[in-house]
Amino acid sequence: MKGVIFNVFDTFVVERFGADAYEALLDSCTLQTREPFVGPGTYPDADFAELIIKASQQLNLPTPDLLRAFGHFCLPRLVDKLPELLEGHTAKSFLLSVENVVHIEVHKLYADALTPTFRYLDPAPSHLSIQYSSPRRLCHLMEGLLDGVSEHFATTISYHQSQCMLDGAESCVFDLEFLAQQGG
Questions:
Q1: What is the DSSP annotation of 36-81?
Q2: Rounded Cα distance, 70 and 74, in Å
Q3: CA 86 to CA 65: how far, in whole Å?
Q4: Residue 108: left if φ>0, alpha if ψ -120 to 50, beta else—which one?
Q5: Which tens digits make up the pLDDT trace of 95-139?
Q6: Which residue, among 9, 15, 128, has the nearest Cα to 74 in the 3D structure?
Q7: Contact predicate 162/175, CB 8 Å
Q8: Which residues contact 89 (CB under 8 A, 6 or more apart)?
């Protein structure tokens, strides 16, 4: 996992729960990484998993809810690094660009990044299915990212998972419906 994700998680916990909560979280973990997380660095997935599990326990927040909240928090902070990737897009067109544009740009910044794989089925102007595959199985984080996309583009997105890796499927499938622009 790239250090930038650890850095955003640090900010998430501090902003939402306080610096003391983050320090207590770090103190409770036996991370493989001993040094501070640096944005371009690559760190064990197990360290991120342990931080999430311990944060869920200490903050009394179910892991899926924590990951969703983090994904929502994460989206604007990640796109701040490459704002041009959002220009001229709608929520749907941005999501359709993730695999072949956004992830390519991520690899330019972080050559060794292991990004998830997205496949798309685009059956109608107001619908989209995204097949998400990742050995990290962070589908709840993906839900939060979808919420962040909805907010960023001021577009209501209704979604559900028709299959999930956490239930034994090889990939998650998110079925999306783009309902309306918010506030207008």
A1: PP-TT-B--HHHHHHHHHHHHHHTT--HHHHHHHHHHHHHHHHHTT
A2: 6
A3: 26
A4: alpha
A5: 998 877 776 777 676 677 778 899 999 999 999 999 999 999 999
A6: 9
A7: yes
A8: 97, 153
